[in-house]
Amino acid sequence: MDPLDVVVVGGCGHVGLPLALSLADSGYRVGIDDIDAAKIEQVRSGSVPFLENGAEALLRELLPSGRLELSADPGLLARTDTVILVIGTPIDEFMNPSVRVFDKVLDDLVPHLKDGSLVVLRSTVFPGTTETVERRLRAAGLDVEVVFCPERIAEGHALEEMRSLPQLIGASSDRGFDKASRLFKPLGVSIVRTTPLEAELAKLLTNTWRYMKFAIANQFFQIAHRSGVDYNNVLDAIRRDYPRAADLPGPGLAAGPCLLKDTMQLSAFTPDHFPMGQAAMQINEGLPNYIVDTLNSREPLAGRTVGILGMAFKGESDDPRASLSYPYVQDPSFVPLEKVVADSDILIVAAPHKAYRKLELKGRDVVDVWGITGPIRL
Ligand SMILES: NC(=O)c1ccc[n+]([C@@H]2O[C@H](COP(=O)([O-])OP(=O)(O)OC[C@H]3O[C@@H](n4cnc5c(N)ncnc54)[C@H](O)[C@@H]3O)[C@@H](O)[C@H]2O)c1
């Protein structure tokens, strides 16, 4: 069996697959290891399991090159000295990060890892995880370097951002840093060196900062809306030709697989439980309730048909993870757009897909806090 330059564990996921494709596109021989055998088969047949700009075309181009190898068996790791872990890092039922996911994965991987290897953690992890993983691997008798190189792409833009965003490398040794720098060099991005803990915090703070910006935008919207003014006019007055406020986002359902989870991770890490983060979670998670309460106070919703447009967590995405539209879906079988529009008494735009811009909604009762179908309205 030929050696592999790198193996991506969790390589069929939203982060793992674009990364594996980019590395193979840079000339590496890449192994994709994923426990989901169905996804492995799907990718092997040339289909990407989720929407990601340009990914399917690149996959189809790379498959015949032989530079991509896929397997649901971690035995693939025995053929490399560079392993990237991109497994999901969920929050448990007590809103704490499930740090044990790494224990389980490491148990499975240790028998296949070699001395002298580089292990790159790329999932967004609870602060201190890199050091813990390194200690565990060393305790298992392995002489390996563990570094933290967070993924910072936005879903849908992964291939282009992988080659433009600076790569953070959180390393505790020069040896680990040098190996990781060599690994990412063909992507042509600049490198920022930190300690592992600094990089872990940088990633969590970045996502939390973004989540909090959406929260303040949603809170401002509610303050203005409650006082009966048109928020479109307020936003325009704030932003127009005023660069210091140009980055105030509009309101919207802020959800998805990362921002809320990572704000929770930071909250769990912080001894005083991070009241600003908790307020952000309450505001963002509470926006659907605010919409429902407002509609109910106008005319009870019971007996009326409400159509929800968009179940993904953001526009132009097919990812429904942690979407804020879900709690209001009574029936899991969705109906076609035309039928929703035709049969609903009220339409709520829950994800700002560009396709909704073209909908004919004149005279309809529409809630659109994004302002994608016209002005912001509730
Ligand atoms: N989705 C994003 O835009 C994004 C951006 C930056 C960072 N992140 C972080 O990256 C991590 C992964 O997120 P994702 O969105 O790619 O998740 P995902 O669920 O799409 O992918 C994870 C993949 O890992 C596989 N997997 C799980 N356990 C495994 C194991 N033991 N061995 C092999 N494969 C295994 C799963 O089958 C899945 O294909 C998370 O920590 C997330 O917070 C995500």
Describe this structure in words.
The chain is an alpha/beta fold. It folds into two domains: 6-194, NAD(P)-binding Rossmann-like Domain (Rossmann fold, 3-Layer(aba) Sandwich); 227-367, Rossmann fold (3-Layer(aba) Sandwich), CATH 3.40.50. 38% of the residues lie in helices and 11% in strands. It is built from twelve helices and eleven strands. Strands 3-2-1-4-5-6 form a six-stranded parallel sheet, sandwiched between helices. It has a three-stranded parallel sheet with strand order 9-10-11, with helices on one face. Strand 9, helix 12 and strand 10 (346-349) form a beta-alpha-beta unit. Helix 8 packs across helix 10 (259-269), helix 8 (196-226) runs parallel beside helix 11 and helix 10 (259-269) packs across helix 11 (275-298). The N and C termini lie far apart (61 Å). Nicotinamide-adenine-dinucleotide is lined by residues 9-10, 12-16, 33-36, 39, 86-89, 105, 108, 123-124, 151, 153, 155, 257-258.
Fold blueprint:
Layout: E1 6-9, H1 16-25, E2 30-33, H2 37-44, H3 55-62, E3 68-71, E4 82-85, H4 100-109, E5 118-121, H5 129-139, E6 145-148, H6 158-162, E7 167-170, H7 174-184, E8 191-194, H8 196-226, H9 231-239, H10 259-269, H11 275-298, E9 306-309, H12 337-343, E10 346-349, E11 365-367
Parallel strand pairs: 1-2, 1-4, 2-3, 4-5, 5-6, 7-8, 9-10, 10-11
Helix pairs in contact: 1-3, 8-10, 8-11, 10-11
